[in-house]
Amino acid sequence: MPPPMKPEALWSCDPKSIQQELSNQAPKLFSDADNVEIWKTPTIIVTAGGDYKVEQCKLSEQDMKLLWDHNRQFRDIFYVVDQGNLWNRLLITKETWASLTTKHNVFPYFAESILKFGLQEDDDSNIWNNFHSRDPLNGSGDIETCYTISFLERDQVANAIEDTWSLRQTAIYHRMHSRSFSSIWMLVKPSSGLKSRLPEKLNEFWYDEEFRYSRHPLIHVMILFASLSGWYEYLTAQSLKLDQIEERSFSGANSVDQSDSRSSLEDLQSVQRLRRELFKVLSVLDSTAELSKRIRNIIPRMTVHMRRELTIAIFEELDDFDAETKHIGSCIVGLRERSSDAASLLLSIFGQCNSKLNLRNTLANEASQTTSAQSLSVMTAMAVNGELGHELQKETSTNVRNLMIVASVYLPISLLVLLSNSSFVKSDSGTLIDPRTFWKFTAVLISVVVLIFSIMFILQNTPRYEETDLSTRKMNWGRGWKEWANLACFS
Fold it and tell me: What is the tens place of the pLDDT at every residue in 211-223?
């Protein structure tokens, strides 16, 4: 008998490298304490119309001990792992995660989905659904499936000015045991809608025996539809936001204020961000549509015990899902084209506002230059008038100084004449002037005049002695003598 085939031989991934990366990212992925929920459907009771109710509780140590027994019971086990917030750690320890994945023999593809969670600083640009479905190749007919599904959810921000939305994601792992028809599910960061609706649906599936054997594909279909719950609200919110931007643009198209130009720039930036966001959500929607096709392909392997009518009904549900995703995609494309038109309009309005503002600034600059030229001419005229007044004042002061010098010369002469007027007349000879007295008077007069001229010359030319250059000092002295010579002649 040939040895059993190892499914690892067909895996396209490298389990060792994935586990190594998971171990490296463990501080950012896992918390220090467990807060994991476990949902358990009751074991089958052969009682017509039995009351089946899903048991929801926290994962305990007793549950951890019975992990292997869960694989052999005719029931469904759901491990629900939440996240602290959008970009926080998963509320499960590294040890508990290792025990769950080891006991249930989870294939490594699911670890690739887990690496998208944990502490992050930036938004993850990887939007691939990471769908994988494998047969263990042990003849049991088991099916192992995992994928990541994205959905839109409104941010719960207190006192927010406007509604903001973010892309969320849920990692799904499912292992269906064909022999016992039991299943193991792992839901990592499920949406609030999925967490509230899934237990009710499980109660309905287990209440009826017909649905009990078709619950596996129905749960996958339900997860798909749960991912579309926030899309219409998101599109309505973005359309309303675009309406407001367009209304402001049309009302302020003729405005040339600086504040309106800044507002147009902010609206243009908002529209550009909306366009990039619409491109991303459209890619997410395409990935979800591709996920629907992959799930459609594995459903026949899960419906061995189902009636043909139920199989047809499930495929009809998937057809409805594909039609709805196509409609949402067309709405996104239309909104994206509308945002492109709004961006073009805002760009033209912004350019027009800038042109008007530049024209206004140019006119203001020209007026300012004209005013400056007028002010300059007035200041020039004032400077010329001031210079003329200064010259006139200088000339007046020079004349007054000359008059003072002349007065200072004639004052001692008058005093000498007054003192010696009696000596000029000679009574003996009968002449009016005594020659000896006249020459004495003349000598004294000349001496006094020279003394006065010297004193005044020295006093007036005292600053010239501060010259350090000897040649300049001589030049100033020479100029001073010439001035006094001219003044003496004038006198």
Answer: 777 888 999 999 9
Q: 301-328: b or e for each residue (b if 16 or more CB lie within 10 Å)?
A: bbbeebeeebbeebbebbeebeebbeeb
DSSP 8-state class, residue 33 = S
- Is the pTM of the predicted complex or chain greater than 0.85? no
The kind and range of the H/E element at 271 are: helix 258-302
Which residue in 139, 219, 130 sits closest to 169, CA to CA? Answer: 130
What percent of the chain stands above pLDDT 70?
71
Q: Is 185 helix (H, G, I), strand (E, B) or coil?
A: strand
Q: Are the CB atoms for 43 and 72 separated by under 8 Å?
A: no
> Are 55 and 39 spatial neighbours (Cβ–Cβ below 8 Å)?
yes
One-letter identity of residue 185: W
Instruction: State the DSSP H helix or E strand holding residue 146, giving kind and residue range, or none if neither.
Output: strand 143-154
79: Cβ contacts below 8 Å, ≥ 6 apart: 36, 37, 38, 59, 100, 184, 185, 186, 187
Contact 117, 188 (CB under 8 A): yes
CB half-sphere exposure, 54, CA atoms < 13 A: 21
Residue 33 backbone zone (phi > 0: left; psi -120 to 50: alpha; other: beta): beta
